[in-house]
Amino acid sequence: MSGDLHCYTRLSNGSMGIEEIIALAKSVGIETIAITDHDCLAGTVRAKIIGERNGIRVITGVELSAVDSETGDVVHILCYLPDFPDRLEGLCHRNTVARKRASQYMMLKAAQRYPVSAELMKRCASGSTNLYEQHIMHALMECGMADSFYGKVYEELFSEESENNIIVKPSFAEIKEVIEAIHASGGIAVLANAAKYRDDGRLEKYIEMDIDGIEVWGPDISEEEAQTLSSFAKKKGLLATGGSCFKGLYNRQALTLGSFVTPKTQLQELLGFKAKQKRLMKKNAAADN
Predict the structure, then answer these.
(1) Closest CA relative to residue 91, chosen from 188, 9, 173
(2) What is the model's pTM?
(3) What is the pLDDT of residues 24-44, one digit of tens each?
(4) 134 CB-near residues (< 8 Å, 6+ apart)
């Protein structure tokens, strides 16, 4: 039994609702999923209930946005199985407000560049907790000003290499603060798309911040990188996870739910991680006495 532990609904930057995601999981034969909307836990209870009705295990999850102040880069930390998800609400709200401020500026910049109304962009984001670049592109496509979500217009507006980009970076919480918040909630902290940080020393830096695991399998991670990361995780005693980063209509490539997964062994390690930690703590406490 494997599981797709990285997918989004229309509560953030996916195009499908919770019911649709779970129905898709059932139709493609995926028995375990984690919905990891950006800075949003709003759908977790409902997802678990609908999942149970359809024979799909839904692991509580959220993808929390963070910033590496040394580089200015946005880094995403996946949180799984928090015992007290309400303890993450403050951080989620703070990040959501920061993203809204940034997206307002990007929306205005896009409206200045192209004859597309802010109202249409907002309508394309209907149902989401925020406005994402995918919603701006959706509006541009609706008006015939772009022919794809990730083509020439996208590169002009949202690539950091573009001199004409409209990117405004939100002021997210620091990585260490996010990891500490996850642990305070009783959750498991996993570095998303770990391959991005392997060659410049940042992976080791984030591990020192007490990350519990790394994302090894995904659409932006090659087979060779996945093998290297899997061996690295095993050597470091880290959990290894994977998922499709499924966004439905907003996918960067043709893939469906379950195209990338966490293998059975690694999924069981994730599910048993907290129990294992508790046993180790009891053992160490007994040894100290």
Answers:
(1) 173
(2) 0.94
(3) 999 999 999 999 999 999 999
(4) 13, 15, 149, 247, 250
